């Protein structure tokens, strides 16, 4: 799996401006993955930041995940407030941040099972 820089949020680490330059990085993600791991979330999935009153996920990443890569699981954790699980009916999105918004490492681990591929 190739590494990318994400998210775009309050000038913190892993930043790359939204738009074509970021989409070019997401386009390096190969198709056919079962599990995709990124630092930040796609737009609309466990990305709400109450203090900012906005979603901070990446729309380019959302389009990459839902239209091209289509992994079974997408795991991230960069937005601590979004800890938890969601699905779009195909991909399960897991914000596995171990830290709370105040950087306390108290969120319990999220454990999941991924079925073995047929014929394995």
Automatic annotation (TrEMBL):
Domain of life, source organism: Eukaryota
Annotated protein name in UniProt: Metallophosphoesterase MPPED2
Source organism per UniProt: Galeopterus variegatus
Lineage of source species: Eukaryota, Metazoa, Chordata, Craniata, Vertebrata
């Amino acid at each position: 799996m190739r590494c990318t820089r994400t998210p775009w949020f309050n000038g913190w680490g892993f930043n790359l401006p939204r738009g074509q330059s970021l989409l070019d990085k997401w386009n390096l993600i190969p198709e056919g993955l079962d599990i995709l791991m990124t630092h930040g979330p796609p737009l609309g999935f466990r990305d709400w930041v109450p203090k900012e009153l906005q979603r901070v996920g990446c729309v380019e990443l959302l389009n990459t995940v839902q239209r091209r890569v289509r992994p079974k699981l997408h795991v991230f954790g960069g937005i601590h407030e979004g800890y938890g699980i969601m699905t779009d009916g195909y991909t399960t999105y897991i914000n596995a941040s171990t830290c709370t918004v105040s950087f306390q490492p108290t969120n319990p681990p999220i454990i999941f099972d991924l079925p073995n591929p047929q014929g394995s």
